[in-house]
Amino acid sequence: MADKLHELLNSARKYDLGQPYWNGMPVHPFDPPFQSYLYRYHEYVRKTFDEMGIEPGFSDAISLMITSHHAGTHFDLPIHMSQDNKVQGIDVTPYQRDTGFKDLPEPLHSLESVPPLILRAVLLDVPAYKGMDLLPERYPISGEDLAGTMEKYGLVINAGDCVLIRTGYGRFFETDSDTYLNKWAGLNDDAARWLAGLAPRLVGIDNLSIGIPAPFASHRILLVEKGIYVMKSLNLEELAKDGAYLSTVIVLPLKIRGGEASLVRPVALA
């Protein structure tokens, strides 16, 4: 069985859905910047090891990273946001600590309780459906757009699936921060409610804030009201280029105790 599974995985097309991380990368204006620094340098460590008699000539380098859990490609839990301090009808304020969330009542949970996610994934390439390569600036994707995309490509979204939504703006992540942060297309409220009605387990998108024109309405609908996981700042360009509308997505958030979100590097197999 293991050999057959290995052979199957080896033969699948593999897509890296994550964006790179670097100092100066685009992050939400409300969030702290992503920072990564070389904390230990080889020549200085070698000198110290030599002086201490620890394997002369040997050294190492170690980096230090300072970031929010929401920089670049990341995975959000429902407790990331609230409406009137409530998530899925539960007041979350009694469960907040300086170190994160603790003793959350079901169905709420923090990152250490998220299992490895291996999900059937459906790509909704909205620009392709509309005969475009890139949606217009600040374009509000409607429920009709999503339904039309599914119909055009013969797609079905089942409860528990991962839905990947391409706007085309993921291409600007490395090249044009202003466009990526300020001009992206996203879901309008109708689209978010239409999508939530299909009960996916995870919704991923190639922009930063999901919703247009209200940046947090889609978060509220998906996360706060329906408890659906969200993944943002994806790179869906290669998946769309190959017409891989159905795939298997593997998502492994870090098991951060009390955490509400995690940097993540998802992959798709098609």
Keyphrases for this structure?
270 residues; alpha/beta; Glucose Oxidase, domain 1; 2 domains; nine-stranded mixed β-sheet; two-stranded antiparallel ribbon; 23% helix
Write up what this structure looks like.
This protein has 270 residues and is an alpha/beta fold. The protein has helices at residues 2-11, 42-52, 126-129, 143-152, 177-182, 189-196, 217-225, 237-241, and strands spanning 14-16, 35-40, 62-66, 74-76, 86-87, 90-91, 96-97, 100-101, 117-125, 140-141, 162-166, 186-187, 202-205, 229-232, 246-251, 261-263, 267-269. It has 2 domains: 35-66, no CATH class; 74-269, 3-Layer(bba) Sandwich (Glucose Oxidase, domain 1). Strands 1-17-15-9-11-13-14-4-16 form a 9-stranded mixed beta sheet. The protein has a two-stranded antiparallel ribbon with strand order 2-3. Strands 5-6 form a two-stranded antiparallel ribbon. Strand 7 and strand 8 (100-101) form a beta hairpin. It starts with a helix and ends with a strand. The mean pLDDT is 95.
